[in-house]
Amino acid sequence: MTTVLVGLVSVCLLQTMVIPRLAIGGIQPDLFLIFIFGLSLTAGPELATSVGFLVGLYQDTLSGAPLGLHAFTLSLLGFLVSYLSRQLRTSQVAAQFALLLFAGLVSGLTTLLLLRFFQVSRPIASSILWTVVPGAIYTATLGVGLLSVPRVRAIMRVRR
């Protein structure tokens, strides 16, 4: 659990201090999603869902978004990735990229739909085309690169 807390603080610092400088056209990768994705590849569905909820709640308190928005999304993705990683060969880079791209798309679409529920109207078609899809691609590309680093792999291993 200490590793998860250290990872969370590191992700928070990197997301707020480094990632804005890596933005391309206003699109930033989501390190919180990459963190939950990496954890979900090795953890069981219960742990991945719980940590996803806590990380999402932490992200909600920092972002000013409606409380529970990211908590719901990351707990859902923690469960889905953990479950799907048992069905797929996630040791291959292409499978990790596809699964992380799927997670990024689900995250973006879920966030858009929940914001619409909370009466925050944004044009859905243009948001999907110009925000969700590029963000998912950027997150998947950076995430696969980060998860392929041997040291990160060793840190993200959690007993099932």
Architecture blueprint of SSEs:
Elements (H helix, E strand, L loop, with lengths): L1 H16 L13 H12 L2 H19 L5 H19 L5 H25 L6 H24 L2 H7 L4
Structure, explained:
- The chain is mainly alpha-helical and 160 residues long.
- The protein has one domain (2-10, 28-156).
- The chain has seven helices and no strands.
- The longest helix is centred in the middle third of the chain and has 25 residues, at 93-117.
Q: Tell me the major beta sheet.
A: none
Number of helices: 7
Give, in order, the helices and strands: HHHHHHH
The whole-number mean of residue pLDDT values reads 89
Query: What is the number of beta strands?
Result: 0
What would you call the shape? globular
Structurally, the number of domains stands at: 1
Helical amount among residues, as a percent range? over 70%
Structural class based on helices, strands and sheet pairing: mainly alpha
The span between the termini is 13 Å
Portion in beta strands:
under 5%
Determine Rg (CA atoms, Å).
15 Å
The low-confidence parts are none
Short description:
The protein has 160 residues and is an all-alpha fold. Helices cover 76% and strands 0% of the residues.
Labels describing this entry:
single chain, 160 residues, mainly alpha
